[in-house]
Amino acid sequence: MIAIAIDDEPKALDIVRNFADKVPFLSLKATFQDAFEALDFLQREHVDLIFLDIKMPDISGLEFLRVLSNPPLVIFTTAYAEHAVQSYDFDAIDYLLKPFAISRFLKACTKAHDVLKVRELAVMEENKRQAAGSVLVDNISDKPMSAMPESIFVKNGYEQVRVLLDDILYLEAGGNYVVFITKHQKIASRMTMNEAESLLPSDHFVRIHRSYIVAKDKIERFDRYEVYISGQVIPIGANYSHQQLMGK
């Protein structure tokens, strides 16, 4: 995992450099006190992860991220706890409050490494699916419905949480979050319903309301206006039809 560190304090960069040397799966390729030099570097080199200070002269870490069209994974490093809420809006992998111990540094790096592996696996699977589709396109009408993938990863705070698709009962929108209601827990993730819907196989999940997506195989009964799942009554929106639950 290739990383860089950006911080206007030399001592802070020394700590990140020292800790990074002890993480076997991490390669700290460069460090920068000037964020604009780092920006130039990112335009030329591939980077998986940025250790980014928030409060810096000329441009803050948050402003720096806004400049990037496709930013790498980010772990914020700062001495100001009040910045934690702001960093959350940028989908940071983690937030390291200075001074931090190497154990905390390693935990954050492990989170980033896990997310990177999941993304790489997703790309590989998509490439395989596209390759298979190009070969089988002539015979696709003869194929049965594709099997549902076993799980997805959902962002919960600074963590990516594995959710078994077979455990999902339904999804409910709430403000800037979508709540995944499963057999065992509720997981709130900062995303839109459209983003959540794109994560789910459409032959197993269906949107019945602007604020609800349900698992088809968890429906106990339904009528024109409501769906019943695990004792919960879920409304069918005016712009949605109960007939889609019957595959019509």
Task: Describe the 3D structure.
With 248 residues, the chain is α/β, with parallel strands linked by helices. The chain folds into two domains: 2-116, Response regulator (Rossmann fold, 3-Layer(aba) Sandwich), CATH 3.40.50; 144-246, LytTr DNA-binding domain (OB fold (Dihydrolipoamide Acetyltransferase, E2P), Beta Barrel), CATH 2.40.50. Helix content is 30%, strand content 30%. The chain is built from six helices and 15 strands. The strands form four sheets. The protein has a five-stranded parallel beta sheet. Strands 10-9-8-12-11 form a five-stranded antiparallel beta sheet, with helices on one face. Strands 13-14-15 form a three-stranded antiparallel beta sheet, with no helix packed on it. A hairpin with a 2-residue loop joins β11 and β12 (212-215). The longest helix is centred in the middle third of the chain and has 35 residues, at 102-136. The termini are far apart. Mean pLDDT is 83; it is low at 133-145.
